[in-house]
Design goal:
Layout: E1 2-5, H1 27-31, E2 37-40, H2 44-57, E3 62-67, H3 68-75, E4 85-88, H4 91-99, E5 111-116, H5 122-131, E6 137-142, E7 150-153, H6 171-180
Parallel strand pairs: 2-6, 2-7, 3-4, 3-5, 5-6
Antiparallel strand pairs: 1-7
Length: 181
C-alpha cells in the first residue's frame, strides 16, 4: 500500500501515483519531484531497491549516484555488473560529484538518479537540487523529506483503497535481477 504524507513545507497533501506507469516510463520517474521525494515505512527500502534495479536495468541510460552506506543497506554492497552506478563514500562526495562535469557523461544519460539517505542533512540535498538544476536529476531519499512529498510504503496497510501496490524487492531478489538482467 502506498500512502502519501504531507511534508512540513509542502502545505498540501501530495497525490501518490496510482495505476501502472505509462510505457517507457521508468519507476524512478513515477516518483520524481523537482524538490526531491522521501520514502518512509516498513517497505521503503524494498521500493528503493526496486527503483534502483529498474534504473540500472533500464535501456534509457539512467546513471545512478549513491553512497556506500546506502548501496550496502539496499543491496548488501555494489553489484559488480552495474556499469551505470557511481558509489561514493559520503553524502558530501555525492554532492561534489553531482556538481562536477563528471556527473554528465559525454553520451548524456536520459536521467541521473540520486538515491540517498540524508538524515539530518536534508538541506544539503535540497540546496544541491536548487543550486545545480540539471535536466533529468531525480533525488529519491530514504526518510522523511521536508522539501517535497514523502511516501509511506507499507504493503500490509489494510486501507488500500484504490492505490496500486508498488513493487517491493528483497536484497536477494534485487541481486538476482541485476545478475540475470
Amino acid at each position: 500500500m502506498l500512502l502519501a504524507v504531507a511534508a512540513r513545507s509542502a502545505g498540501r497533501r501530495p497525490r501518490p501515483p496510482v495505476g501502472p506507469p505509462r510505457a517507457g516510463l521508468r519507476l524512478a520517474h513515477v516518483f520524481a519531484h523537482p524538490n526531491g521525494t522521501g520514502f518512509i515505512g516498513p517497505d521503503a527500502d524494498g521500493l528503493l531497491r526496486a527503483i534502483l534495479v529498474d534504473a540500472l536495468m533500464s535501456s534509457a541510460r539512467t546513471h545512478v549516484v549513491t553512497t556506500h552506506s546506502t548501496v550496502t543497506r539496499l543491496l548488501g554492497g555494489k553489484p559488480g555488473n552495474a556499469r551505470e552506478l557511481t558509489v561514493l563514500d559520503l553524502l558530501e562526495d555525492t554532492v561534489e560529484y553531482l556538481e562536477s562535469p563528471a556527473a554528465m557523461p559525454s553520451y548524456g544519460p536520459s536521467a541521473i538518479l540520486w538515491v540517498t539517505t540524508p538524515d539530518a542533512d536534508t538541506d544539503v540535498v535540497y540546496q544541491t537540487l536548487l543550486d545545480r538544476p540539471r535536466h533529468g536529476l531525480i533525488a529519491l531519499c530514504a526518510g522523511l523529506w521536508p522539501h517535497g512529498p514523502t511516501y509511506v510504503i507499507d504493503q500490509d496497510d489494510p486501507f488500500s483503497g484504490d492505490r496500486v501496490d508498488p513493487p517491493i524487492l528483497t536484497k536477494e531478489q534485487a541481486l538476482t535481477a541485476l545478475a540475470t538482467g
